[in-house]
Description:
By secondary structure, this protein is mostly helical. The chain contains eleven helices and no strands. The model has no long low-confidence stretch (mean pLDDT 77).
Amino acid sequence: MQAFLIFAIGGFVAQLVDGSLGMAYGVTSTTILLTAGLTPALASASVHLAELGTSLASGLSHWKFGNVDWKMVLTLGVPGATGAFLGATALSNISTEAAEPWMSAVLLALGGYVLLRFAIRPLRRRQLSGVSPKLLAPLGLVAGFVDATGGGGWGPVATPTLLSTGKVEPRKVIGSVDTSEFLIAAAASLGFLASLSHQQLSWATVGALLLGGVVAAPLAAYLVRVVPMRLIGVGAGGLIVLTNARTLIKNFDVPGPSPAIIYAAIVVAWAVALAYTIRVILAERRELDEVDQNATEPVRH
């Protein structure tokens, strides 16, 4: 019962982060399961089976709050499902460890770009022209494969790439990526069930992750609806940088107190960016209130 509760809380936290920032459900959940002693294949399989429910609940919640671009969902999700199925069936024979530090370096750079773009030069609605299928289809294929083989990666690959284009509202990116994740979870689950028939899945673990994620999904979708889009961008960028910095430090086995110093520097810089962004948002709202107030004042002759 204690393990079930821990996994349920883990699923809740993972979905709260994923549903509001468009990433990190798989990374967070898989980390918890690996710590508990599951093999990488079983951990990834359990997470993707749970994501069948959490991504469906998240997608419906995002749709309800108007955060979904269905054209993007299909153009990104169908190739993503193909990549996820291939990745799931190949996980037992293919190692992504060699590519992990390189992928993390790319994602870290993208995260830094997203953070700075939204903190210093936020998107304007006139720039939101949409993303070409020529980018969405290959992006989905790669992100789906990475997600299945790494136990997570659909959001960390797809979300920062789409945010960095500056052509779609962050809430639409997050809602569409989260909604399309159902296709990826379904395809990966089919691949895992076919290739892991000789191994014993823990359905209690899957159920705990699912329960926590379903409870968190509506709250996360509401948060992404009401939180200003540039604040979401800064939050997502900082999370990407921190997550991938940890991966790089682990892969290169950075010695001594250096990791703690690096983490502290990232967190401080992220906090400063968030504080600055909040300050600018409040200032902009005060300006809008003043404009509205002046517009409603009667003209005196």
